Amino acid sequence: MKIVKANDGVLTNFEVLNFLRSRGAGKDLTRVIAPIAPSEFKVYDYLEQTAACSQTRESIISFVGKSKQYKLAEAEILNLINIRPSSVVEIDPIVEECDKRMGEGVEELVEMVLQVLPTPPSQMQSDDQVEFNKDDVREGQEVEAS
Amino acid sequence: MFYLSKIEHTLRLPPHLLNLPINQAIKGELEGLFLDKVIADLGLCISIYDIHSIDGGFITPGDGASTYTVMFRMIMFRPFVGEVIAAKLKESDREGLKLSLGFFDDIHVPEHLLPMPKQFEPESGNSNQGRWIWEFNGDNYPIDAVDEIRFRVHHVTYPSLPVEQEKASKPFAPMIVIGSLDADGLGPISWWV
């Protein structure tokens, strides 16, 4: 075995997930028919729980374009796409020397991330649950009134 | 987290696969050979991405199988230093934490890379297992297995194969990721959200 090129390109989590989906990972519930190995299914399960499961190619391309103005390193842009931080404190471990380089720009960056990259389902679920509880409370009060 | 690596390999295709279309047969052989295995300094092989070229097909005398030289690309899992990854807690003992990604289990966070000031609370009955607690502003934040833990990759080591192994020792880990929780925004997500 000969290693011709150790690093032929970086892949975001979304690209790996898309690759597995294109081979039929998501559609097969039995996990026997699709031509995917069990170890690849474990990768698929992990990626479905991260922010990558709701991203699209267009959103990533537009995110890379808009992040050019912040002069971030390629590794930092990759981290941002994979993690999708939703607050300033989550950006801190990703962007080095965040205060010195960006100062006020951090909040703009968070806004941009929230707008361009779609919400992962785990964050959407917690919002849905809050609304569901409010509906319950209202129904309970109506029943008591009548 | 994931890279593409281009590899050239000389492959022997056993005769019972000769009825399959050649691409399919070679892909199956490569998958059996490389998937879920670690290549030193390249990482864990996840998938065959595509096949660039298949050369050869000669049958050497005395052998029923044909030999091919295949050039292909593979998706490798190789976290880079400084990457932030979300993982689940697997074990927690006096030496630190062990995290797992589902497809990759050997992620260690040694106790000197946990956020200071910290305390270890041993479980009743087993003094080695327990949970770690971070003390910040007078509050205690425990590291529990409730939600995901974000860590930053400190470095990745590829220990070489041991010559002999005792039966009782842990299975050999060919790739170990050392992580740190020592910055704002790292640790269980519930601490920051």
TrEMBL record, chain A:
Domain RNA polymerase Rpb4/RPC9 core: residue ranges: 1-120
Gene Ontology molecular-function annotations: nucleotide binding
Coiled coil spans: none
One GO cellular component term: RNA polymerase III complex
Chain intervals with Basic and acidic residues compositional bias: 131-146
UniProt xrefs under PANTHER family: CALCITONIN GENE-RELATED PEPTIDE-RECEPTOR COMPONENT PROTEIN (PTHR15561), DNA-DIRECTED RNA POLYMERASE III SUBUNIT RPC9 (PTHR15561:SF0)
Family the entry assigns: Belongs to the eukaryotic RPC9 RNA polymerase subunit family.
UniProt-recorded name of the protein: DNA-directed RNA polymerase III subunit RPC9
UniProtKB/TrEMBL annotation, chain B:
Residues making up the signal peptide according to the UniProt record: none
Broad class of where this protein is predominantly found: nucleus
Gene Ontology BP terms: transcription initiation at RNA polymerase III promoter
Transmembrane domains' residue ranges: none
Domain RNA polymerase III subunit Rpc25: 83-192
RNA polymerase Rpb7-like N-terminal domain residues: 8-64
SUPFAM superfamilies: N-terminal, heterodimerisation domain of RBP7 (RpoE), Nucleic acid-binding proteins
InterPro entries with a match to the protein in the record: NA-bd_OB-fold, RNA_pol_III_Rbc25, RNA_pol_Rpb7-like_N_sf, Rpb7-like, Rpb7-like_N
CDD domains associated with the record: RNAP_III_Rpc25_N
GO cellular component annotations of the record: RNA polymerase III complex
Localisation: Nucleus
Pfam families: RNA_pol_Rbc25, SHS2_Rpb7-N
Primary role: DNA-dependent RNA polymerase which catalyzes the transcription of DNA into RNA using the four ribonucleoside triphosphates as substrates.
Family: Belongs to the eukaryotic RPB7/RPC8 RNA polymerase subunit family.
Protein name, entry field: DNA-directed RNA polymerase subunit
Organism: Escallonia rubra
